[in-house]
Design a protein that fits this description.
The complex is a heterodimer of chains A (195) and B (204).
Chain A lengths: L5 E7 L2 H12 L4 E3 L10 E5 L15 E6 L11 E6 L4 H12 L4 E2 L1 H10 L8 H9 L2 H11 L4 H8 L3 H15 L4 H10 L2
Parallel strand pairs in A: 1-2, 1-3, 3-4, 4-5, 5-6
Chain B lengths: L6 E8 L12 H11 L3 E4 L3 H5 L8 H13 L3 E4 L15 H20 L3 H4 L2 H17 L2 H24 L4 E7 L3 H9 L5 E3 L6
Parallel strand pairs in B: 1-4, 1-5, 2-3, 2-4
The chains are: A alpha/beta (195), B alpha/beta (204).
């Protein structure tokens, strides 16, 4: 089986930023950079944000947007934005974030996740049903939930537990379903409450 | 009914540390093979302690400069399986006729390596048989203690691979080890064919 190439476009920011980012992405294995107006559309659009989501272009529903940003101060984001990558992250996180959003998952940099959680109102406690669900989780699932609360990406969780990324994704899907949450951020909110 | 797919496992022999002297070895080729295969797990020869401390000082060139960068930029997870940092070349006798013979075998291997300078040939049957024979003859020249240490190391390495597969079954696993281990490791891994299916790396 060969690794499928992921088609990526770069937009936003200044021309020099875009050129640098394109060269960087093209140097990562399994990623190819094409112009945004290319047909078929890219799977992932990496967008250099200037602090607002107003300048985001309208893209095909097959394109996931990964926003490269400095903070998590957005009031709302379009549905096509499935990833928020902090500029503080190391280079290696870029490839991981692109792969994650290309698979239809969400990506949130740990530093941004923590900032989002800190912005929220003081935490309400867990509901009785959430408590019973958490008690019924397996040791491995509880371990993964704990690492999620630290803001780790799926790859970082997998690396720490010596499991494949797909296995971690499987555990997370199971955790979401049992906690009746629909996103990573919601699961993180629950996870933070039990820390 | 168990619906978990069977683990697929391939073994890739790497050879940058085949000789004490530096030799030309195209690490780009190894990087490309691993990135293209995109296994879920990559079992590599580095100790868990060294990997967690990101201390590559005792790791081979292929881990430092080929595997670690690929791992960092893809979804592949590295499983450190080396029981100790000792490598094949650490077992060469210190002096005497045994050492002279080992050097001759080294040169023979070096010659063979120059002849077989692409991944397909290196992992092919004929080069494999040639290398295995030379490595087997070299091992005979080691002291009994060194042979026992080498054997124990291969056994522990196999156990570490088996544990990784048991922890995360149904995945695509690539084992990248120094090629001198292959003639020891392959039979030991085949003994666990109830846990995984061993296949050529191209078919992973």
């Amino acid at each position: 089986m060969r690794l499928h190439e992921i088609i990526v476009s770069v937009g936003g920011g200044h021309e020099l930023d875009r050129a640098g980012l394109s060269a960087l992405i093209a140097s990562l294995p399994g990623l190819r950079v094409v112009p945004l107006d290319k047909t078929p559309p890219p799977q992932v659009l990496v967008w250099e944000s200037r602090g607002s989501s107003d300048d985001l272009p309208s893209v095909s529903s097959d394109t996931a947007i990964l926003l490269l940003t400095e903070d998590a101060g957005y009031e709302s984001l379009p549905e096509t934005v499935t990833g928020l990558l902090s500029r503080d992250e190391p280079l290696t996180a870029l490839g991981i974030a692109i792969r994650q959003v290309a698979r239809g998952e969400q990506y949130l940099s740990p530093s941004l996740a923590i900032a989002i959680l800190q912005k929220r109102e003081p935490k309400s406690s867990l509901t009785e049903s959430q408590k019973s669900v958490i008690e019924s989780l397996t040791n491995r699932e509880r371990e993964i939930l704990g690492l999620l609360a630290q803001g780790l990406s799926n790859k970082a969780i997998a690396t720490q537990l010596y499991l494949s990324v797909r296995t971690v994704e499987g555990h997370l899907a199971n955790i979401y379903s049992r906690l009746s949450v629909h996103s990573r951020t919601e699961a993180m909110l629950v996870a933070v409450k039990i820390r | 009914m168990n619906t978990t797919p069977r683990t697929r496992l391939a073994i890739l022999g790497t050879m940058s540390d085949l000789h004490r002297q530096p030799i030309t070895y195209d690490l780009d080729c190894l990087r490309k093979v691993v990135a293209d295969l995109g296994p879920d797990l990559l079992c590599a020869e580095i100790t868990m302690d060294a990997w967690e401390r990101e201390d590559f000082s005792k790791a081979s060139l292929e881990i430092r400069e080929a595997l670690a960068p690929v791992i960092a930029s893809t979804d592949i997870v590295l499983i450190p399986v080396a029981p100790t940092p000792e490598r094949y070349t650490d077992f060469t006798p210190d002096s005497g006729w045994r050492r002279r013979l080992v050097r001759i075998f080294d040169r023979l291997l070096q010659w063979g390596q120059v002849q077989a300078d692409d991944v397909q040939t290196v992992n092919g049957r004929w080069f494999g048989a040639f290398c295995h024979t030379v490595c087997w003859l070299t091992e005979i020249l080691w002291t009994a203690k060194d042979r026992a240490t080498w054997e124990k190391q291969n056994k522990e390495l196999t156990e570490n691979i088996v544990r990784a597969v048991q922890r995360d079954s149904g995945r695509r696993v690539l084992v990248a080890v120094q090629c001198q281990r292959l003639h020891r490791l392959i039979p030991m891994l085949r003994a666990h064919d109830d846990l995984f299916k061993i296949m050529p790396y191209q078919n992973l």
